[in-house]
Amino acid sequence: MFEDKNKITLATVKSFIRKNPNMYIKVGSEFDGMTDCVRSVEDSFTPVQRADDLNDRNLGIAGAWFVGGSRDSIYPYRDNHFDGVRVYNCCGEFYLAVKVG
Asked: Does residue 4 register a pLDDT over 70?
């Protein structure tokens, strides 16, 4: 879906979200305010739940968190079952993907 040679931007991710209503999310790490650090999360891909508060930080997806201002590192993600993007920033890491095959 995404080629490694192409730069993936927030605009690319927004387009991916609009074009794929049946997405999955996997949270790899998240910010923990109690310890003031990012901690790993044992998670697997689950169907995307729409967030109650649609805003620029979550783009309407529960579990997603975008920092914005080009501070999100966005990479292509692909495994045997899913194809999409990996987003990493100071608030954690998550994957947005669609099932392949």
From this structure: no
